[in-house]
Amino acid sequence: MRSGTNLPRVGGYNRAVILEAIRSRGEISRVELAELTGLTTQTVSNIVRRLLEAELVVEAGRLPSAGGKPRTALALNPHGAYAIGMHLDPDATVTVLMNLGGEVVARVRRRSNGGRSPRSTVQRLAGAIDQVIEKADIPVTAVAGVGVACPGPVDLERGLVVEPPNLAGWHEEPLVDALADRVGIPVRLDNDATAMAVGERWAGGADRAEPFAFLYLGTGIGGGLMLGETVHRGQTGNAGEFGHITVVPDGRPCHCGNRGCAEAHCSPEAMLADLRDRHGRRVAKRLGVTGTKTRIRSEYAQVCRAAAQGDPAAADVVDRAVHLLAQAAVSLVNVVDVRLLVVGGTALRHLESRLLPELTTAVNERTIARRLRTVRVERSVLGDDVGAVGAASLVLHGTYAPGWAQLLATGVA
């Protein structure tokens, strides 16, 4: 838990510290807030009054007292603010409206079309934003912002989507400005797996308070890093590209320009290609694998089910992908030295029973610091909408969580 500071000109930071304490504790009194944050009781009272006026927190009855006057409980008001999150994935775009408490109150899923121009894509995104707001029946003014999670690379400083895989014709597109102009709401952009790490931190509470690496398995493979209490984006905003760790020297070409990347060998599409390459088209046909782009999700699920039922060809392909992902995870843990790996994404659902034990064994038996710490491998708390929820969390975490942005802002408590 972060401490506040009683120095002047840090009101925004102190407000965020108090709000984070209330959010993480569920219910807490003003006295307990002062003890927890190190702020004076007067500072806490002033901040709480403003949070009540802004309807970000509510008074929620009385707390038991060891003696004296019962203390008033303060709780987060989940309806005090909302954020919209959009995951711009090559397979589908998922849009969610999430309240301050982390609950998804409206959701829209639309299949992506790699042939659409950036302009038509922005129009579709704006339509999805209008749709979730209408579904939730809230005013636009209640939405604090829109977060967009997109496959990298991204240019965060200029709000550009650089060259996303499977989106033909996209090159340094100003998505942030174009979408903000269209919907009239502030827009934040981030690498999709980084957004997921932020979402995991925001939604996970005490269980995700420590440093961790997030591994994303979906249409592609990505990673996000939450180091200390801050997301690590790197100098260009593209840190944590787990899918582009080399796992097969001089292996299959990857869209990034390298060869042998984890994504080129372990993504659902790559695993289906591996089945055809290693076992032939006759076996692929027997398992229902055609290689059709629109059927990748369903055919990947079929192969994973066949592997679980003991089919030797399917098991060979799945086990090879799991082994290579574990190999990449060892490299990642050796570099960032964390005690927690969080794994999420739509592709995990069919791979979980094989992958999580393999990752756990690998990072605890093959990393250089294995005698100094145990690494836990856990499933994401965000479910299948991890990308969109992470994108919405970019807004809530960036607006309401304590960080350097508040410390650099002017104002007093």
Summed up, what is this model?
With 413 residues, the chain is α/β, with parallel strands linked by helices. 42% of the residues lie in helices and 19% in strands.
What structural keywords apply?
single chain, 413 residues, alpha/beta, five-stranded mixed β-sheet, 19% strand, disordered C terminus
Estimate percent helicity.
40-55%
Number of strands: 15
Radius of gyration: 23 Å
First CA to last CA: what distance? Answer: 19 Å
Q: What is the H/E string?
A: HEHHEEEEEHEEEHEHEEEHHHHEHEHH
Strand content: 15-25%
Mean of all residue-level pLDDT scores? 88
Shape, principal axes of CA atoms: globular
- Which strand order does the major sheet show? 6-5-4-7-10
Q: Could you describe the 3D structure shown?
A:
With 413 residues, the protein is α/β, with parallel strands linked by helices. 42% of the residues lie in helices and 19% in strands. The chain is built from 13 helices and 15 strands. It has helices at residues 11-25, 30-37, 41-53, 118-136, 175-183, 192-204, 262-266, 268-286, 296-308, 312-336, 352-365, 386-400, 404-408, and strands spanning 27-28, 57-63, 71-76, 82-88, 92-99, 104-111, 143-150, 154-155, 160-161, 187-191, 212-217, 221-227, 230-232, 340-344, 376-379. The strands form four sheets. Strands 6-5-4-7-10 form a five-stranded mixed sheet. A five-stranded mixed sheet has the order 13-12-11-14-15, sandwiched between helices. It has a three-stranded antiparallel sheet with strand order 1-3-2. Strand 12 and strand 13 (230-232) form a beta hairpin. Helix 1 crosses helix 3 (41-53). The two termini are 19 Å apart. The relative contact order is 0.14. Mean pLDDT is 88; it is low at 4-10 and 404-413.
